[in-house]
Specification:
- With 457 residues, this protein is mainly β.
- The chain has four helices and 27 strands.
- A hairpin with a 2-residue loop joins strand 5 and strand 6.
- It is rod-shaped.
Length: 457
């Protein structure tokens, strides 16, 4: 019986190594599948029964000695326990990331053929194959497309079920990673720092970017991005310097296209408003344009911030330092100008130009307060010292000073008022009409024209 047992082990080893077809061993007989963990008998060889020889032709035959018929002996069975194989518990993962299955064939056999199977409601499905390496170790990588609890098993050989050997079943938690954008407001004002917020659940280490997309030309385009916090939350800025109605969503960035998570979309409106804000101003904020002896004190001035349309067709945030009594008129004037989309190049405190009117003009700045002498006439105090007068788009609207010099020097081409270009002021321009209606006088009517300048009558 020993030679017969050795022959069965040889067949099993050959199956593990993939060197013989599955039909070479009774354990892989496709006609008689055996559930995992069951045993399969190897049939005993057929033996002929002993027969009684014919009597000899003699007068008194001598009976032949009786030979007993041998009793068939059951062959040893091939079971899963004969070739033990382990499978470590895989870690939970996301539905679009590979699951790692690792273990070893404890006999240490190398190059044994193994297959990975997943249990579905319709039955077991083959998901991969590999061969053992040194010490019988093996590894599978498989990406489960759907979230939920998935059941897997590793089998020795190619057929399922296998009587050669298989691992215990392992249940893997395949997580459903979701990207949720908090429902935004229906409408926002331009340049108010609009952000889309939300959370990636569960947080994924290494996936740190989320992008804001809008629907444009029938396709999604990425506008801005932001880092995702360790807890999965995010706040991604919305470009809000152009009034528009947008269909937006957020998506994960930095991974393969198959690993992208996208939120539901929302429709938001960015509204075009002046959004004027008024506050007090400190002497430190105007230390280049205010000095002792000025006709107004810092306490009589106000800091006015407001939106304006730029030459680039976008909305920008500007600042003006104005007399407290002029705030209401200035808001009315700039509301009319904003609604008419009159372009402004720059709107900043003259302090940012060191208090220099010449530098501010060369920068095409629009401003109000600057306690100084009249440019070109050091003996007269400028009306800007009172916080009422205003200069608009100084390059496109130059002026002829008392010393017969045109300022700024880079605005000389705009002395020709017959050639109409953006930012130039005319009687029909929105700022001009609004300021005149508010009781201001336009310097373009002076003998030495000042096309940029308006002051109260």
């Amino acid at each position: 019986m020993k030679p017969r047992a050795l022959g069965s082990a040889a067949v099993v080893a050959a199956l593990c190594l993939g060197l013989v077809p599955a039909s070479a061993g009774a354990a892989e007989d496709p006609a008689s599948p055996t559930p995992p963990g069951a045993t399969q008998s190897i049939p005993a060889p057929v033996t002929a029964e002993a027969t009684t020889p014919s009597p000899a032709p003699v007068e008194e035959p001598t009976p032949a000695p009786s030979t007993p018929t041998p009793t068939p002996t059951q062959a040893p069975t091939v079971t899963a326990e004969m070739l033990p194989i382990t499978l470590n518990q895989p870690a939970a993962t996301w539905e679009d990331r590979p699951i790692t299955f690792a273990g070893r064939l404890e006999t240490g056999l190398v190059n044994s053929y193994l297959t990975l199977w997943e249990k579905l409601p319709t039955g077991w499905v083959l998901r991969g194959s590999t061969r053992t390496i040194a010490n019988g170790a093996y590894k599978f990588l498989y990406t489960a497309p759907n979230p939920g609890a998935a059941v897997f098993r590793v089998v020795i050989g190619v057929k399922f079920p296998s009587a050669v050997g298989n691992t215990p079943d392992r249940t893997v938690n395949v997580l459903d990673r979701t990207l949720v954008m908090t429902k935004p407001a229906a409408s926002y004002i331009v340049l108010t720092g609009v952000k889309m917020t939300g959370k990636l659940t569960p947080p994924e280490p290494g996936k740190k970017l989320v992008g804001l997309q809008d629907r444009f030309g029938g396709k999604w385009r990425t506008l801005t991005s932001a880092w995702i916090a360790a807890n999965g939350t995010f706040a991604v800025p919305v470009p809000d310097n152009l009034p528009a109605t947008k269909t937006v969503r957020v998506v994960t960035l930095g991974g393969a296209s198959t690993a992208v998570e996208a939120s539901a979309y929302a429709v938001i409106t960015i509204s075009a408003l002046l959004n004027a804000k008024v506050s007090n101003i400190s002497a430190a904020s105007i230390n280049k344009t205010y000095r002792a002896g000025c006709p107004v004190k810092p306490s009589q001035l106000r800091y006015l911030t407001l939106n304006y349309w730029g030459f680039d067709g976008l909305v920008h945030r500007g600042e003006l330092v104005v007399r407290d009594a002029a705030v209401a008129k200035m808001i009315a004037v700039w509301t009319a100008s904003f609604n008419a989309k009159f372009p402004i190049r720059r709107m900043q405190r003259v302090d940012l130009f060191g208090g220099s009117d010449i530098k501010a003009m060369a920068a095409d700045n629009t401003s109000v307060f600057n306690c100084r002498q009249v440019t070109g006439n050091p003996y007269a105090l400028s009306p800007h010292s009172y916080g009422f007068a205003i200069d608009i788009n100084t390059v496109e609207n130059p002026y002829l000073a008392a010393n017969n010099v045109w300022y700024p020097s880079n605005g000389l081409a705009y002395r020709n008022r017959k050639l109409v270009r953006p930012g130039m002021l005319f009687a029909s321009s929105a700022p001009t009409r609004a300021l005149i209606n508010a009781g201001f006088f336009w310097g373009a009517g002076w003998r030495q024209p000042d096309y940029q300048h308006f002051e109260p009558k």
